[in-house]
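Can you give me the bound-state structure? Components:
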Amino acid sequence: MTVSDKSSNITRLKIEPTIITRDQHNVSRTSISESALKVLYRLKNADYKAYLVGGGVRDILLGREPKDFDVVTDAKPEQIRELFRNCRLIGRRFRLAHVRFGDEIIEVSTFRAPHHVSDEGAGHVEGGRIIRDNVYGDIDDDVWRRDFTINALFYNIKDFSIVDYVGGVKDLEAGQLKLIGNPSQRYIEDPVRMLRAVRFAVKLGLRIHPEAEDPISQHADLLEGIPPARLFEEMLKLFMGGCALQTFEMLRHYNLFKYLFPQTDSLLDTHEKNYPHTFIMQALKNTDQRLNEGNTVTPAFLIAAFLWEPMRTLADDHIANGLSEMEAVQLAGDTVISKQIPSLSMPRRFTQMARDIWSLQVRLKRTKKRSFRVLMHPKFRAAYDFLLLRTQAGEPLQELVDYWTKEQLEEPLAGKDKIKSGYHKPRSRRRPRSRRNKPSDS
Ligand code: ATP
Ligand code: MG
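Here's the bound-state model for the whole set.
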């Protein structure tokens, strides 16, 4: 039987799922975190349905270690809270539960129906875009609201089987990323899915299916309507996941990068010697390398790199108009960051650090005077790394780099405070703050 809704091109199929029994798949409980298992079992023991869903199942099937675990259940948020002491309900547009075990947060959401199969009014769509998404359902409702087939696999704690309504397992085997339902419609509902497509394609080495690929050019500009804070969260996932370079190239290929950093993008298209391109590629390569070696990176460094060329171009104009280099860099920095905020807004601590890195580039040129004060600046290490990056990208700054390398060796306190210079531990993506901006899903 097929139930379709006139307001939507997506057809909800009342179909029987494929059940992949435990002996037919490789999702073992030893690959699932203890905390996620505790949540699943406690729900099950209280006679609720409980499934692991999303990246957790997908990544284990691919033989990768999941970043985090999402659980879905028929228990309502209040019922989830009754079961777990360490639980917080979050979200305004849709409520879900965060169950905390030390540093790990398991996100538990209640089955929801996609807005278009409900007429209860709690789901809400404006101009095709999901505004509210709060209608509870069952697993066979919940599956249709998910984005890609490979993200819609449910691992059932009751019998350890995988429930597949959408052919996700076959798509994983075939290495293809397919949207569930009508691709155009799904991008209009939530344009961030275009960015997610690129992220998953790169991270998991999948091909975006032509049907999911074709409508991107038509709908890319819908990303202009996404709240800038949500784009920031998405930007972190795109560039702080260890595949920043490839992700950048694919975003440029689909002309999506310009919705994240419009000022940078327009320079990438027009600049003569292609310097910004080389520079950004080098910055991304270094970021990937650091992350893949287990080091941490601060988003501020990437922000400083992405906006460096727009800032520098503007600063050159100011210098031509008679400002000192320092004044020019500070003024240009303010302007470039203010112009950036309406597209993708960044927390102040990061923009401030980007500004510091830029002004320190001017101060690092003055090698004779006040070296000690520069060395003691809390952002010295980051600024020094930035100088290295510029050199790697071809600027003739090697002498300066050598000077500061030597100064650091002679000054044991230099750059000692790595925390302050921004090399902090990465924040867990599962903090409540980052979830609040997520519009349609869990
Ligand atoms: P990862 O955690 O590795 O980034 P993930 O697939 O788990 O990948 P999450 O953002 O944690 O991604 O979301 C969990 C699940 O929620 C997804 O697998 C998908 O089923 C659903 N989901 C998340 N965001 C969306 C969205 N924008 N549209 C539709 N479904 C979504
Ligand atoms: Mg996840």
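A couple of observations. Residues 54-55, 67-68, 70, 146-147, 151-152, 190, 192-193, 440-442 surround adenosine-5'-triphosphate (ligand 1) (CB under 6 Å). The CA atoms of residues 308 and 417 lie 24 Å apart.
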